[in-house]
Amino acid sequence: MKISVLVFGQIAEIVNTEKLILQNVKDTDELNEQLKKEYPLLQKLAYSIAVNKKIIQSNTILTNEDVVAILPPFSGG
Amino acid sequence: MQNKNSYNRYQRQIILKELGSNGQQKLFKAKVLVVGAGGLGCPALQYLAAAGVGTIGIVDFDVIELSNLQRQTLYNIDDIGKYKAITAIQKLQAFNPEINFITHCLKLTNINALSIIVNYDIVLDGTDNFATRYLINDACTILNKPLIYGAILRFEGQVGVFNCLDKEKNLQTNYRDLFPEPPEPTEVLSCNEAGVLGVLPGIIGTLQATEVIKIITQIGKPLYNKILSYNVLNNFFYEFDVSINKNNQTIIPQTKTEFENFNYDWFCGIKKQPNEISINDFEALRTNENITIIDVREYDEMPFVVEFKHIQIPLSLFENKISNQTLTNKIVVFCQSGKRSLQALKMIQEKNPAIQVFSLHGGIEAWKKHQLKNLINQ
After folding, report:
1. CB-CB contact of A70 with A30 (8 Å)
2. C-alpha–C-alpha distance, residues B301 and B116, integer Å
3. Are B127 and B149 in contact (CB under 8 A)?
4. ipTM entry
5. Which homologous superfamily does the CATH classification assign to the domain defined by B276-377?
6. Residue B111 near residue B260, CB atoms below 8 Å
7. CB–CB contact A77 B127 (8 Å)
8. How many other C-beta atoms are found inside a 10 Å radius of the C-beta of residue B239?
9. A59, B46, B265, B348: which sits with the fewest CB atoms below 10 Å from its CB?
10. Domains in chain A, start-ordered, CATH in brackets?
11. What phi, psi does A19 have (nearest 5°)?
12. pLDDT tens, B21-54?
């Protein structure tokens, strides 16, 4: 199973790319855990997660070819 | 149509069959409030005035600075030091005298927001901080006013439409459904610190104005319950669907009283630390008492400070250098925006608990702005 993770804003700087490809992640909680472990700077950041372009509000099961997007809030104007 | 001139003025959009003179009439009748006449507000205001939106209100309490001109295209060199709301309206009035402009030269708060917003049909958020963004969102939710959200940082921008019922999906979301909690203030980057490509707010502000025009004239598909993200570097557009966050419904103020009692600065973590001093207290201290003032910014940082006597010890060298320094028993540390000076404050407190040390709230940027405002008001 393969999923793509698109990252935006400061998160792209922290993970040093705009797109990650990950294998065998069963749900968004697990994805969150993995990312925070690999990139500890993410632990303090606020962000929202979308699965296939829909912002999710709770843990969501991931399936093959799903596209997850991680969006931090911006405040600049 | 009011007269032949105004027909000529808007002729290029009236001949669009989707818009027509009916759409133009709707624009004439519409009342739009733009909060923040900065990077997003300037282009949005220009296009709303160009399109013939009948009533345009501007909320802004800030003055124009040289560093604004890289992206805030309504202003020029001679406007530095003037209030943005007043200056923007002078320019726009000359550009389109048919429009009824309303100046709100003030800071939007939970005490004045509802009484201002209630007079408008649509609100465009062009502000630059989370506390005001949540405040505007909540006010629009209580008053059931469409909110056109836009935000930028470095090379990326976001635009979206909240508080608008998507009749097809029977869905109406707000900013808190997307971001229920504001980020920690220490993790927030502002354009002052992180930078922004000047053309980016031009694009995002123009997208916001486009959504306003689409909603008023009821054409196309506005970004109801959606966030559009745009990256200028790789031309990457990405759309997110927002759905209702059930947990959020317990937090958002539901009534005027709840709204007025909600502390937005506290919610967004902006409260003064125990040893932070305000600009007025700093002014009193530095003119009346024998204190040491320390600039903890790095050596090449602007603006230079020539207005008062101080020493410079960059934060990167602070821990080593502060031990060798002869210090008075009262010290004020400052930096650009007041964050790094809090770290310096802690270092001094740890090494010399006997010394009274203060950090300048808002940093030298806030101090310079305060000086500029005093100068204008004299």
Report:
1. no
2. 39
3. no
4. 0.94
5. Rhodanese-like domain (3.40.250.10)
6. yes
7. yes
8. 13
9. A59
10. 2-71 (3.10.20.30)
11. -145, 130
12. 999 999 999 999 999 999 999 999 999 999 999 9
Q: Smallest CA–CA separation between B48 and chain A, in Å?
A: 17
With an 8 Å Cβ cutoff, the interface of chain A facing chain B consists of 6, 8-10, 18, 44-46, 48, 50, 53-55, 57, 69, 71-77
Give the confidence band of B247 by pLDDT, cuts at 50, 70, 90. Answer: confident
Length of chain A: 77
Q: Which two tokens stand for residue B60?
A: 């802004």
Tokens at A73, concatenated: 């809030």
* 8 A C-beta contact, residue B148 and residue B123: yes
Is B115 strand, coil or helix?
helix
The sign of the dihedral angle between the CA atoms of B251, B252, B258, B260 is positive
Q: CA B119, CA B138: separation in Å to the nearest integer?
A: 16
pLDDT digits 0-9 by tens, B124-152: 999 999 999 999 999 999 999 999 999 99
CATH 3.40.50.12780 correct for B4-267: no
Note whether A27 and A59 are within 8 A (CB).
yes
CA distance to B35, B83, B86, B267, B304, per residue, from B73 (Å): 16, 15, 15, 33, 26
Residue B188 has pLDDT above 80, yes or no: no
Domain boundaries, chain B: 4-267, 276-377
**CB distance B152–A9 less than 8 Å?**
no
Name the residue among A10, A71, A77 with its Cβ closest to that of B229. A71
* Residue B287, token pair as written in the block: 């003119």
B41 close to B128: Cβ distance less than 8 angstroms: no
B300 has a pLDDT exceeding 90: no
Would you call B226 helix, strand, or coil by DSSP?
strand
Give, as one character, the DSSP assignment of residue B288: H
B105 is catalytic: no
